[in-house]
Target: MYB transcription factor
Amino acid sequence: MSENTVVEHISRVTLHQPNPTIKTFLLIPKDQAGDKKRSVLCFNLQAQLIKTACAERKLMVADKGETRKGPWTEQEDLQLVWFVRLFGERRWDFLAKVSGLSVGIFLSDLTILALFSFVFVLSCAPYIGLNRTGKSCRLRWVNYLHPGLKRGRMTPQEEQLVLELHAKWGNRWSRIARKLPGRTDNEIKNYWRTHMRKKAQEQKKGAASASPSSPSFSSTVTTTSKNNEVQSSEIDPTENKEAVNGYNSVDQFWNEITASEAATQLGFDEYKEIGCYTNLSCSSITMPYSPVWDYNPEPLWRMDDEEFSEMIVPDLAHS
DNA sequence: AAACAAATCAACCGCAAGAGC
DNA sequence: TGCTCTTGCGGTTGATTTGTT
Model:
């Protein structure tokens, strides 16, 4: 970061669906640190900055050595959610690396300053040091953190469908999972192993002894569904949430995202028009954009420094 | 209440396919 | 064409939870 600039305050780092935007954070030149009205800069930084920086500025991504294994902590989950929303559900290896980013670059101009500031935000608690493999990140996201996942037991309908599709396709779990929205291949696989296989075996045994030449598929379904109805009715709906096992704060995290989605979204121009960049209480600049790998032939930071300065702080640019 | 067994499920591993160079 | 890298899939493991005696 420029030696002449101090990060005085980070008002809020939050996310929007479907794409996150780092909201307002404030950079104050040291010599004007007391004069917020004049000197505050509000950046709306896009993930594109990171991509461009990596490609063109040879941003170094530090190798943090040994990757973590084992159960994910709540903090890691939050961090992963953050980075997936930022970069999209691809390039897991990149995501895993960039999420443990530590950078040292020398800066002299405003756009790089913006970039560094972005990196600074990435480095801030609580989003520090996700040190997992891309594979592990993907697995955690797909099987646990994805917002579209269902929680709780399989419904009788789902159970029947699993049985039918398994009879049709065998252990093609991902294929089966595609027919059950909100269920993962891992979940179905586990479920099959514990419930269905046992029942199928029992049924096979029973059918073999009764009528070896014509195993009855439909009776298996009926039995299974009945059992499951009983089990389902015993479930306290309030316990469904508990099934997340201590990850209520992730739910809260998503709730916050959903809530923020409903908030007013100002384009940068609108934002500029009403002069929010000088107002500390004005919290957000939001520009719609896609995840970084799909987006943006003209990254923000290609803008001329002069133009950029003028847009952000006209009175500073003209001084 | 304690001990044990069974069930559950998150997470790892190895392999294969596809993309990019 | 072959190599490397990334991603996705299916099998498996092992820790934790739940049920039973």
